[in-house]
Write a structure and sequence with these properties.
With 606 residues, the protein is of the alpha/beta class. 47% of the residues lie in helices and 14% in strands. The protein is built from 22 helices and 16 strands. It is elongated, with a radius of gyration of 32 Å.
Length: 606
């Protein structure tokens, strides 16, 4: 029974308002129908947010940490006696400048950690349970956290720059006659060049504050830092990354200049503190009665602090890059190259001491194409094979150049191939599939590659007489735009299909192929008729038929939930962000805490 309020189904009305208020819901139901609430059964309940709790908890902790860092620094410079005289000149600009600088230091400490791939891979390998396991799942969002930290750096950079622009205006204004009398009364010795007595970096009257700013170490380094930050930020937009990856790649390495400038920035000594507050209390000494008894205030630079924050992460990142460099020098032998339909290139390689896990990815480098570019690709081979392989969709300049180097019109292989360098392997969310007894794998187009490695591993594990495989059921979904895309992966599915039937476990793997375009209605009708006649799918050659159109995820997740009560189900996806958003919502919607069903959503990010 659907109850309507203001021409909207009542549950949808409250959901649109952002809440499902039980008391108001009950009142409206009884007012409209006159029937007690006990006579209603609500099938739509708020989803269990199993996939957002850890993420939002970490986000809130990070925001709280930023707030604490800002608040402590603001209070120190707004109330501390050491900065009494400096506040007399700069007023509120001082605490805003220093508090924003503290937040910048904190986030510059964090921003390199999410891109230390070897560190993250090591953390993934740690065996953990309970809360720690949930926290480690957040490693899958490392690039998201990297971007959020970058946003925070940009915001507080604007605040920091704005505050110091006003501060230099006040430094210059302190030389006005009206201001000068006050400053002189407060024992500021502007004419004295002694490093222990001066407080104002502007040493004479009538100068342009902007010109004076650019004469300082802090001013010059600040401009360099800001330019590097602007270039890195603007080139990191999705449009630039997808259309002009080389621009993104080169400009993002300006982080080296950014961090060097950040370390140098604080050595200018513009912010100074009083060092003799014990003998010259600035509050008491400003009383006319006590002024003649107080010695002159003495000042010194607060000293640079940024290097203390960034030294450790820079050291970690330096080790990271050293590991990558050593790996890039190791010999990689290309054993086989295959051109698949739908512009997919398969490269099989060998490398000494190369050990991988299913679902991991590597970075490839080809010096003949670019001396600096490294591109990530998921491994499609499994650890049990004597080689490792990747399937690369030929799209863009770099992949097109790679295909031209390895293939020509008449042959698939060449005796003399260009040298490839490999960095990795690195872990992703897909490596956690062993932790669940029921897994849902969803690949879109070439996004099926991580599941090729995983399904091969499962196939080898099932062939062993003694296997520690914990997985009891696999649901596999592959969504493609054209019929040729299925060809290279169908052979693997066919082998798995035969093996599972021979072992009497044909229900272990349930796979579903979806063709979303590349066919007309007449073609689809003919294919369906042929499927009925031949008993196997004419597109893939598999027993299970190909579906035409997009999956109906509501029905799919509902069926999986009903078939697997009281189960933690791992949902793994590789593909575009739009479908990822849908799958995450489905995972939350059909997670039911009362029935013990939880869909844990995992997306490939690299």
């Amino acid at each position: 029974m659907h109850v309507i309020y203001d021409n909207i189904p009542i549950i949808e009305y409250f959901r649109h308002k952002g809440r499902l208020d039980g008391r108001k819901l009950y009142q409206l139901l009884q007012t409209q129908t006159g029937v007690t609430v006990s006579e209603y059964h609500f099938s739509e309940m708020p989803p269990t947010r199993v996939n957002e709790f850890g993420q939002w908890t970490l986000w809130l902790l990070w925001m709280a940490a930023n707030g604490i860092v800002f608040g402590l620094a603001y209070k120190q410079f707004d109330e501390g006696k050491k900065y009494y005289y400096l506040r007399a000149i700069l007023k509120g600009g001082l605490p805003w400048a220093r508090a924003s600088a503290a937040v910048l230091n904190f986030n510059c400490f964090l921003i390199l950690l999410p891109v230390c791939r070897n560190l993250l891979s090591a953390l993934r390998g740690v065996h953990c349970f309970g809360l720690i396991k949930s926290i480690f799942r957040l490693l899958d969002k490392n690039l998201t956290y990297h971007r959020h930290i970058a946003y925070m750096i940009c915001i507080f950079s604007v605040i920091h720059i704005g505050a110091h622009v006003f501060n230099f205006e006040r430094f210059a204004a302190a030389w006005d006659e009206s201001q000068y009398a006050l400053i002189y009364r407060l024992s500021f010795k502007f004419e004295d060049t002694s490093s222990s007595t001066w407080l104002n970096p502007i040493r004479q009257r009538g100068v342009d504050p902007n010109t004076e700013l650019f004469k300082t170490v802090a001013g010059i380094s600040g401009v360099i830092i800001t330019l590097a930050l602007v270039l890195m930020f603007t080139s990191s937009t999705e449009l630039i990354r997808r259309s002009y990856f080389e621009v993104f790649w080169y400009t993002h390495h300006l982080f080296v200049i950014f961090f060097v400038g950040l370390i140098v920035h604080g050595f200018g000594g513009l912010v100074r503190k009083q060092v003799n507050t014990s003998s010259h209390d600035p509050v008491e000494c400003q009383a006319e009665v006590n002024k003649h008894e107080c010695p002159d205030p003495l000042f010194e630079a607060t000293g640079a602090t940024s290097w203390k924050w960034v030294t450790a992460p820079l050291a970690l990142y330096f080790i990271e890059r050293c590991i990558r460099f050593v790996r890039s020098l190791q010999n990689v032998k290309v054993t086989k190259v295959i051109k698949h339909p739908s512009n997919v290139l398969e490269i099989q390689m060998t490398k000494s001491r190369f050990h991988s896990e299913p679902g991991q990815y590597i970075f490839l480098h080809c010096s003949k194409i670019s001396n600096l570019e490294w591109h990530p690709f998921t491994l499609t081979s499994c650890p049990e094979e004597d080689y490792f392989s990747v399937h690369i969709r030929i799209v863009g300049d770099w992949t097109s150049g790679l295909a031209k180097l390895f293939l020509d019109e008449n042959e698939e292989q060449r005796e003399e191939r260009p040298r490839l360098a490999v960095d990795g392997p690195f872990g992703t969310s897909s490596t956690d599939f062993m932790k669940y007894s029921v897994c849902v794998f969803v690949g879109a187009g070439i996004g099926v590659t991580p599941f090729a490695s995983i399904l091969k591993t499962i196939w080898y594990q099932h062939n062993k007489s003694e296997s520690s495989l914990n997985i009891k059921k696999i649901y596999f979904f592959w969504i493609c735009r054209d019929t040729n895309a299925f060809e290279w992966f169908a052979e693997l599915l066919e082998s798995l299909e035969v093996q599972m039937v021979e072992k009497g476990n044909g229900d272990f793997l349930e796979y579903n192929m979806y063709l979303t375009r590349g066919w007309t209605n007449n073609e689809a009708r003919n294919i369906m008729l042929r499927d009925q006649e031949e008993g196997e799918d004419v597109i893939t050659g598999l027993k299970r038929k190909t579906f035409f159109g997009r999956p109906q995820w509501d029905g799919i997740f509902d069926n999986i939930a009903q078939s697997n009560p009281s189960t933690d189900i791992g949902v793994f996806f590789c593909g575009p962000s739009g479908l990822s958003h849908t799958l995450r919502n489905m995972s939350n919607k059909y997670s039911n805490a009362k029935e013990g069903i939880r869909f844990y959503y995992n997306k490939e990010n690299f």
